[in-house]
Amino acid sequence: MLNNHHHLSDTELQMHLEGLPFNTNQQVHVANCPKCMAQLQLYQQMYIGFEQLPAPKLNFDLAQAVMAKMPVSPVAPKSYSTLIEKIWVIATVFAIILPLVLGQYFGYFDALPQLFSTMFSVIPMLAAILGTVLLFQWIEYRFWSHRMVKG
Amino acid sequence: MKNIVLTSTEERQMVVAVLNNDRKAILQMIRLYERLVMAMVFRMIEKTADREDLCQDVFLKIFSYLSGFKFESKLSTWIAQITYNTCLNHLQKKKNLLLDDVFIVNNPEEETRRYADTITADFTNQTVVMPDELLQQSETNQHLQTAIAQLPILFRTLIELYHIEEMSYTEISQITELPMNTVKSYLFRARKMLKDFLQHQYQLVNR
């Protein structure tokens, strides 16, 4: 659609440079109108100019400057996290085996049915606590840590 | 994206290597993305000393938050988002000195009007610039740099991301947290302002 003065609008000229072809009327008009042709060429020069702008430069080596400021271990080293994992596995195995060994030694297996009946009444409460903790951790991970990055 | 052609697998490998404190990978990541970071910082920040500090700060932030990168976007988009927010925070901290800048970021429409007033009164009745009177491309490029520098901060950032870094509307929308239609509308207005500025220059030359 041509505007009141039959010249192409800035929107139409920009849309053309963004890849939308002119319709026949527009093509004819641009070919015969020095003003629209000049405006189109201005936009074309601007688009070419965007590609030719010089890249920004610092007067020092950014990579080296950043490397110099980086802590030696920016993240927990692999060996450290592996060690923590191993400790957890060992602790879990001990938590399972130790009561069995001690039970065998001290002979308290007879009291197990009573112990389990108490445990089952506590389990829903423990599950609720655990669920709440996990929910908050998930919220923190999903939203809070994401926000922090933007700071 | 300019100069950054990494597949998602390569991105993931690089991130994992950096998280494992592989110095070579860290250096590679800086080299790959320094142009993007510098381009954005240079567009948003004017003082040279601030630019130098911010470019380094951005990378230090990138590495300290990298473990939180969830591969939900391209790494370049995430890095550009950190750069944008770091510069924005910097501008807001300097509000006592740079009221105009904060104003520009928060109210681009008002700034558009102010900018238009500074460069020209009214282009509707101007003399027609004939194609053969147009400046050489090299001269245009010089004027274009001047014109971009005079745009509101948000507008020049959008021009940088879309036209120079060749990012998509979706990516720019993620980086700036602006709706996609707003990004398109601001880009249109920014280009029109630039064209008006260039036209003004041609008229000065041909006067």
Notes on the structure:
The complex is a heterodimer of chains A (151) and B (207). With 151 residues, chain A is mostly helical. Chain A folds into two domains: 43 residues, no CATH class; 82 residues, no CATH class. In chain B, helix 5 crosses helix 6. Chain B starts with 7 loop residues before the first helix and ends with a helix. Chain B is built from ten helices and no strands. In chain B, 73% of the residues lie in helices and 0% in strands. Chain B has two domains: 86 residues, Rna Polymerase Sigma Factor, Chain: A, CATH 1.10.1740; 98 residues, Arc Repressor Mutant, subunit A (Orthogonal Bundle), CATH 1.10.10.10.
Question: How would you describe this structure in keywords?
Answer:
heterodimer, A: 151 residues, mainly alpha, 2 domains, elongated, disordered C terminus, B: 207 residues, Rna Polymerase Sigma Factor, Chain: A, Arc Repressor Mutant, subunit A
Summarize the structure.
The complex is a heterodimer of chains A (151) and B (207). Chain A has 151 residues and is mainly alpha-helical. Chain A is built from six helices and no strands.
- How much helicity do the residues of chain B have? over 70%
Q: Count of DSSP E strands of chain A?
A: 0
Largest sheet entry of chain A: none
Instruction: Work out the count of structural domains of chain A.
Output: 2
CATH architecture verdict of the largest domain in chain B: Orthogonal Bundle
Quaternary state of the chains: heterodimer
Q: What is the total domain count of chain B? A: 2
- From the N-terminal CA to the C-terminal CA of chain A, the straight-line distance is 46 Å
Distance between the termini of chain B: 40 Å
Structural class of chain A: mainly alpha
**Largest interface: pair, residues per side:** A-B, 43 and 55 residues
